[in-house]
Every structure is written in C-alpha cells, then in structure tokens.
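Comment thread on ticket #2218

A.B. wrote:
> Attaching the input chain for the structure job we discussed in standup.
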Amino acid sequence: MLTTILSAGVLLAFALVIFIVVRWPNLRCIGVTPVPLFTFIAILFTSGLDVGLIMFPLGEFPVYADTATSPEYGFTNPLAIEFGFWGFLIWAFYFLTAFYFCVIEPRVRFFEIPAVRIINNIVIIGTCAFTASLFLVYLPSYIPEIGDGESVVTTFYVIVFAVILAAAYSSTDIKYVKILSVGSVWLFAALILGLAVYGGMGPAAFASTISNVGGYFANLHEFVLPMNEYHEFYLFWWFAWSIMIGQFTSRFVGGLKAWQLLAALLVIPSIPLAIWFSVLYFYHENGIDTTGLVNLAMIVVGVTFVINSLDSLIRLYSDNLNLTVQRFGKAPYVVGNVVALFGLTLAFQTQWLQIQWIGAIVVGIYFACLLYVLTIRRAQVAAITSSPEGRVLDFGRIDKVN
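C.D. wrote:
> Ran it. Output below, let me know if you need it in another format.
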C-alpha cells in the first residue's frame, strides 16, 4: 500500500514540475524577502538537508556494495547510488514546492484551509522531531569515546537538548537564518577540503573517484520509482521535507525565472554533494579510519546542519500557528518549542513514529491540493503571469524584518 502511494506521489510530482516549466518558463519568481542566489542556495541547502548527509554515507556504502544480499543495487556503483538518493533529480521536489508557495499559493490559499493548516503543521513538527532523533541515534557511533559506541547515554540526550535549544533561540529572528546558512556552507566546504587533505586524496584520486557519479546519470531512470524499502524510506523522507522546505525557502527566491530556478536547484546543490560523497567514498574504498578528529569535525558540521534545519522548521510552524515571539515573548516561545520537540524526539527514537507515515500524509496533501486547484481555483491559476503583486526585488529587505 505504501509503495503504491509513494509511486503515485513521485509520478505526480515530476509531472507537475514538467507542467510548470512548460507553462511558465520565464515567469520571474520573487519571494517576500528575496536574497541573492548564493544566499538562497545556502539557505535551501542547509535547511533542506539534515544530519543524515554527514552521518549516513560511510555506513551505507558497504550495504550498496553488497549486491549478493541486495541485487537491486547491482546496476551501478555505491557512490552513484548514494548520490542518487541525495542529489540532482530529487531536488525537483523542492523546485515544485518553492514555486508553488512563491507564485501559486498566494492566489489559491489552499494551506490556509483550517484542516490543511493543522495537518501541514503536524507534518512539520513531526519532521523536526525525526531530524533530531536521527542525530541522537547516530551520535554514539561518531563519539565512541563517550559510552560504549552504541548506546545512547545521558550525555547524548544533553547534546541533542542543547541543539534543539539553540535552534529554538535562533528561530526568534530571521537574520540568524542568513548567518547560519552561509556559515554552514563554508564549514561544509572546509570539512570536505580537510577530509581530502587528511586522507591523502590528491587530484588524480579525486578525479578517478568522482567519475563514479556518472553511473547515476547513466541510470537516471532507476531512481525515479522506489527500487526497495530503503529507497522508499528516502523518498518518503524527501516528501516529508518537500512542502515545508518549499514553504520556507519560497520567501527567499530572488527573481529567478522558473526554468532558471529548476536548473539552479538541480545543479548547484548537486555539485557539493558529489564532491562530499566522493571524498567519503575514497575513505571507504581505502579503509581510512575516521575516529577522533575526523569524527569530531563531522559532528560539528552535523550540529550546524541540524540547527539550520530545526531553525527553519520551528519558525515555519510557529508562524503558521501564530505561536510567535511577538505574541508570547521570547522566553515562553523558546521553552515551549524545546519541550515539545524534545518530547517528540524521544518518541521517534523509540520508533513510535515513522517518517514513512509522515511522507504518505504529504503525498495525500499533494493530491488534495491538485484536486482543489482543478475544481475550485482553476481560473485563478490559469490567469497567473507573474509573481504576486507587491513583490519587490529588494535584497536588503531580509535585514529589516524579524
């Protein structure tokens, strides 16, 4: 049942992406607080990806290489599989939702329907907790010096609590989004370079390793529909993130035409992803140990990614539900978010909640929104020729709002 729901959702999403680019290729997308392209991509990259990007690959490469156990991975190499689960085509989901919330939703207002608003914010809050729980579950293997390297001990709960607290506080002012996102991108770049140098990965080795990414593009069709349950997990994960990341990042779109926005989202984030996975694959292939300083550096960058992600999602559901700093004050706002998210994080850690369920709900929202547009708001959407009235390409606007 879940596989059918997921497959239908994926096909719908890609069909809508094609429709948008054909229908409005040159429509300029301007958000309510536009920023330059680099800042926009930085916000999208660090908000739309979480700690799994840092912590998953080294554990996944051996699984993808074991084609005797999982023959479905046999069509290409492990690096191409890893890239396919994180890069290029899948970023079309974020294009679809960013375009929708930037251009279409202000005319349609589907997400202002009370029932939809409630469901959407439950999805956002649940995904926040899932992100924090991933971080909690993987911490022991990256800091084996604390505990036995497998069990989640009290120290790790304290670390996750502190991360949630930092994200809740940073969400009190939108200026932190720009600072955190751009800073995280530079930290990530430094991590990639540092690991390459530490592992002795020269230009020739890098070129040889990254060439494996070509296996993804040669088998692009293999990544459209779920190839197994683990791929389903990833696709549901992307669906769970897609609406809320599109809703959040749409406000920062800085005047790109629709086709340019799609090209930017497919290509620009995929470049650092390909480089990062290539460096980690080099470590995997050469059996390079990552304990100690390397793991610590990865944890530091992972923490910044988690804070970025939670910051954007906390701000989003708080705005949607009018649970804002202006209404309650900074201290009650921070405390309330920390208590709610930390409690849900523990629920995810015990697998009482699963991201697949959230992803399936999001697929349902996709279909409900399309039905609503076709039956009730079709004329308004058909008349769209530009971004909503009042949108001005003012890159300084973000510094004037809280």
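A.B. wrote:
> Thanks. Noting for the ticket: The chain is about 70% helix and 0% strand.
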